[in-house]
Structures are given as C-alpha cells and as structure tokens.
Design brief:
The chain is 48% helix and 16% strand. With 194 residues, the protein is an alpha+beta fold. The chain folds into two domains: 67 residues, Arc Repressor Mutant, subunit A (Orthogonal Bundle), CATH 1.10.10.10; 108 residues, Beta Polymerase, domain 2. Helix 2 crosses helix 3. The longest helix is centred in the middle third of the chain and has 28 residues. The chain is elongated, with a radius of gyration of 19 Å.
Length: 194
C-alpha cells in the first residue's frame, strides 16, 4: 500500500518535479545539484519514495539510481500538474513582457536555488521560493502599478502571487550596497538572455 501522505512534503514534490523533467534515472547527488539540499538529504527522500513504491531503485556500480515506477499513479496524477505548472510559468513570462512592454530590458529571477538550475525558465522552476526583478529603461511607478494589475490577474486565474519588483538600470547598479541588490546581482539570472 502506498502512503499518499509522502506527497504532502514540499521537498518530495520538488524532487518529483526534477524526476519528471529527466529522461534518465536520477541519483541523490544529481538531485542535490539541481535543488538546494545535500546529497544525503536527497538520497534519504529518494529512499523514502522507493520504499513507498513511487520510485524504482536500480544499482549502478556502488551507487543507486531512481526512476518513476511504471504504472504508478503519481505519474498520472502529478504529470499533468507539472505540465500545467510549466504552462503557467510560460504565461507569467509572456504577461510580464506584455505588461511591461518595450521598457523591459531584463527579467531577472533570483532567490532560492535558481543559480543551481541549468537553463532556468519560468516553465521549469518552482515559482514559490523565487522573486522576479524587472529591470526597465523607464519610470518605475507606472510599471509597478502594471505589475500589481498582473498580480491580481494571476491570483484570480491561477491562485499565484507574483513577488515582482521594478527597478531601473541605474538603481540596480547604484545600490549594490543593499543586500537585496547584491542578491539580485549574485544569484539572479536574466531570463531574457536565456
């Protein structure tokens, strides 16, 4: 009998999201590189998922790899959910570009484990621990109001709150003494360059 309570753990969902995006089996080390957790922690979760019948554990030399068990209902339940998340991510990216228009010169996502993701996009990340910084070549007040309208729309359509800030290039460059701007500079990835 599969314990469905395991699917209520956010770290388990993050791991399953990574596994769904892979074509090859994953290892604890591989998961730890994609998410902000140690290799031991990732392996512990993979072992729990295998013990609960969600994953199939395979021996590779002295290590283990894991893949979704064929026919497991999580594949049918979570697959469509993860696909919808990807669709919502693309919609958010498109809406940000539409709402901010030609003034938008950088769309920087930062925070959480974003710097450890390979080719991050709105479609392949968990939006919850991330924050978006929209760098613009215009007055920020009007654009911040547009973002608030977008946030209301996202809440109504998808029950998602977007934590987005609008700054100018000069503000981002001139305020590197503040922790927020340092974090954007250090871990941020401009999705318009991806």
């Amino acid at each position: 009998m599969i314990d469905l309570d395991i699917l209520s753990d956010q770290k388990v969902i993050q791991i399953l999201r990574v596994i769904f995006s892979q074509t090859e089996p994953v290892t604890g080390h591989g998961i730890s590189k994609k998410l902000t957790m140690s290799s031991n922690t990732a392996t512990k979760y993979l072992e729990q998922l295998a013990a609960n019948g969600v994953l199939k554990k395979e021996v590779i030399g002295k290590a283990y790899s894991y893949r979704l068990k064929d026919g497991y209902m999580a594949k049918e339940l979570l697959g469509p959910l993860f696909q919808k998340e990807a669709m919502v991510g693309r919609i958010i990216e498109e809406k940000l570009k539409m709402y901010l228009g030609p003034e938008l010169s950088a769309l920087i996502i930062y925070g959480g484990p974003v710097e450890q993701r390979q080719n991050p996009t709105f479609a392949n990340i968990d939006l919850n621990p991330y924050t978006v910084c929209c760098v613009v070549d215009a007055e920020t007040d009007v654009l911040q109001a547009k973002l608030e309208d977008l946030d209301k729309w996202l809440q109504n359509q998808f029950n998602i709150t977007l934590d987005a800030t609008v700054v100018t290039h000069s503000e981002l460059n001139d305020r590197q003494d503040l922790p927020l701007y340092q974090k954007i500079e250090q871990s941020g990835i401009n999705l318009l360059e991806s």
